[in-house]
Each structure stands twice: as structure tokens, then as C-alpha cells.
Amino acid sequence: MKSAYIISDQPPTAAEYIALRGKVGWDSVAHKVAQSSLNNSLFHTTVRLDNKLIAMARVVGDGFMYFYIQDVVVAPDYQGLGIGAALMTRVEAYLAQTCMPGATVGLLAAKGKEAFYRRYGYLERDGIKLGKGMCRFYKE
Q1: Which 3-state string (H, E, C) describes 19-77?
Q2: Coil, strand or helix: which one is 118?
Q3: What is the pLDDT of residues 20-51, one digit of tens each?
Q4: Cβ neighbours for 99, distance < 8 A, ≥ 6 positions apart
Q5: Spatial CA neighbour of 113 closest among 86, 138, 79
Q6: What gap in Å lies between CA 133 and CA 18, rounded to an integer?
Q7: Stretch 45-71: mean pLDDT
Q8: Which pTM value belongs to this model?
Q9: What is the DSSP code (8-state) at residue 81?
């Protein structure tokens, strides 16, 4: 039987989150910190294969004016398969339903990943007018 990817809008466990971070070389965080961070996120989406977390993304912020896309992460063995795009499709659907005119959505792209986010309308900040980073402003 062939396994299928399962995508859902449920958060990972703190242990899964910490393990996935480690797989991509990110710093470890304490379990309590990871759990508190996940608990205070606005939106989560995860991808699992055989009940194992292989990818996730989340949105943090105040839920009204400011939203930040955080932790768009795919385990190395599954990168380049469109999983990141599937995560962003879910994130963008959440933002489209939630953001009101005047809201700002920001993110910090890993070096070399800017083109991935450009596909979704995010702008590179050149460091002159707005400072460094990327953002998108929601308007009517």
C-alpha cells in the first residue's frame, strides 16, 4: 500500500516541532518554550507521512493588524516535492479569510528562498525605504 501525505491545520506537538527544527539545522529550544510558542500561534498547518511530521508552517501575530509567517519548514528528505507550496497555499487561505484592509503580513525568508515567497506576492525590502526583510500589505 502506498502512503499518502496528510495535510491538516493542526499544530505539531512540541516534541515534533523541536525534532523538525533539528532536521533543518535550526537551534534547539526548550520543550516548555516550544509548547508556549505553538500555543500562542494564530494558525498552524502540518504535513505528515505515515503519522510522522515532515513539514509545517504557522502564522503568529496580533490577529488584527500584524501577521507573520513563521516556521515554513520541510524535512530535508522531502524538500523540492511541492510540500512547501502546499503549506503556503493553506497559509494564504487563512490570511485571505482573516486579514482586513490595512493588515500587514511579514516574514523573514532564509537566504536564497526569497523567490519562493515572491510567488505569493511578498516584496523584498531593499533596506533603503523600509529596512531589510519582506512584507506584503493587504488592501481591499
Answers
A1: HHHHHCCCCCCCHHHHHHHHHCCCEEEEEEECCEEEEEEEEEECCCCEEEEEEEEECHH
A2: helix
A3: 999 999 888 999 999 999 999 999 999 999 99
A4: 67, 105, 138
A5: 79
A6: 25
A7: 97
A8: 0.88
A9: S
